[in-house]
Amino acid sequence: MNLSGSQIIEIKNDLIRWIRETMENTGGKKAVVGISGGKDSSVVAALCVEALGKDNVFGILMPDGEQNDIDYAYGLCKFLGIKHQEVSIKPMTDAFRNSLNEIKGDLIEDVSKQTTLNLPPRVRMTLLYAISQSIAESRVINTSNLSEDWVGYATIYGDTAGAFSPLGMLTSDEIIQIGRVLNIPEKYIIKPPADGLTGKTDEDVLGFSYKELNQYIREGTAEGNLKEKIDKMHRLSAFKLEPIPMFDPKLSIKAEDDTDIYKG
């Protein structure tokens, strides 16, 4: 959805204010952001710099072995002037794969391709939280966007996790527009999104373009059988973004609590 210049500036300013207030409400002062060099992590990191100051933003680069485009991640960190560190997750993902293979044929028939693909995002999130625990008053910031989340192109307890999500209600094209008003170099915000796992772009895997998806999300229009395909993907994956269901035994809670999760 193409927003006007004034709308984008207003959303950008509101985002910066919201990040600052949300950090304060959670007792956080520093942001830990996984940096891929793509638009989502670039925009989140840039927003955090505006909200918290560059000295309070830490970029973590987490290749699973050799990553051909890691220069983008380094370049983005240098452009923003934030502290950053590369940590290879390959020894960790290899350890998981080896352990899974050891029980193949006993507990499980085979280590599925999907299991292998979902390991890196979960390992990365575990690593981000381990690093955050070592940085006083820091919070892990989610970098997901509405477009990917809508069709389930996200790993539960992987890239769906974080203290809060600045871009979770914004489509990929809206994030590009925000990146431009933040003066992020074009190469970081138009880099074709890819999971870094399959060797394909997101659009190759999904079978439709983000432009088509975003139009359907915001305007409700889609050609041919695209609507049915998107609706099915959304329906089957909506659970990834919902709070964990809790059985309600219908017993009273007398303690005072302001959080909605304990209110039936």
Automatic annotation (TrEMBL):
Entry keywords, A to Z: ATP-binding, Ligase, NAD, Nucleotide-binding
NAD/GMP synthase domain residues: 13-236
EC number: 6.3.1.5
Entry similarity comment: Belongs to the NAD synthetase family.
Catalytic activity: deamido-NAD(+) + NH4(+) + ATP = AMP + diphosphate + NAD(+) + H(+)
Pathway, per record: Cofactor biosynthesis; NAD(+) biosynthesis
Identification of the protein by name: NH(3)-dependent NAD(+) synthetase
Gene Ontology MF terms: NAD+ synthase activity
InterPro entries, A to Z: NAD/GMP_synthase, NAD_synthase, Rossmann-like_a/b/a_fold
Pfam families: NAD_synthase (PF02540)
Taxonomic lineage of the native organism: Bacteria, Bacillati, Bacillota, Clostridia, Peptostreptococcales
